[in-house]
């Protein structure tokens, strides 16, 4: 099973090379983007330089056509404009689901996460999904990039009442000890560190937030994002990988356990997080894998607004979709 490899202290380029994975052709002839060599701008960085760039929200785009960028701009503009205003006197949730890597597993996971979270948190019309292709055809969604994430968060900040409403953020990608990795084929590269994401949310005044990070080493986000009014769930502790990120999968282990199973049920977030942790642990035990140890940090203030949102959760659980992540263990 392929997982995100560990951090090396030679260069950020070495880390990004490890993300390269061949995507296979899909029925109908469509071939998803394939990762290639990292951009030379990431070469020969010392670890402290990598951290500094990650904290700055480094993003590099190359070989993008002007016509393609105009189309991307229009996609993003329409998606932002479609978000509905908040309702006075109602705790509204705004959902942002983003796949920061073009491997189709992340595109599929982000799409379904958007649907599940919009239903659970009564956020239909207040949900935006940013993702590349799902593997079957070119993406009809705005790009899952650090820049587009910033725009989505800024628009949410414009719409919400910060004393009343909440952000529900789900991110899925490869990860490294310095943050979430952005990699769009051979054209987009970058890293979002925990400090960068925390700074964005704090700077926008988004205090009520549930942040879920499905990536290797994602426990590094807990200290930066945790607060009395926040909830943070991650796929692993800060120094371990998580599993299930093959390009041809439908789910990562964490995404399948949390989104596809636990959050489909009418149960509080803490119970859902506990169920997801047990599922991931059982799958890792079955595969004789090093436990990823998903992390949960729910502030006492967050419990108050989460309980109000939970009252609007559908009373009937929805059925899981896609191939179970654990089925990867049956592959030779």
How do the strands line up in the largest sheet?
3-2-4-8-9-10
H and E order: HHEHEHEHEEEEHEHEHHEH
* Helix residue percentage: 25-40%
Structural class: alpha/beta
| Residue runs with pLDDT of under 50 for 5 or more positions | 1-25
Folded structure, characterized:
The chain is an alpha/beta fold. Helices cover 35% and strands 15% of the residues. The protein has ten helices and ten strands. The chain has helices spanning 12-17, 47-55, 66-81, 104-120, 146-159, 194-203, 221-225, 253-261, 269-286, 300-310, and strands spanning 59-61, 93-99, 127-130, 166-172, 175-176, 179-184, 188-192, 209-214, 230-234, 295-298. The strands form two sheets. Strands 3-2-4-8-9-10 form a six-stranded mixed beta sheet, with helices on both faces. Strand 5 (175-176) and strand 6 (179-184) form a beta hairpin. The radius of gyration is 18 Å and the shape is globular. It starts with 11 loop residues before the first helix and ends in a 22-residue tail after the last helix.
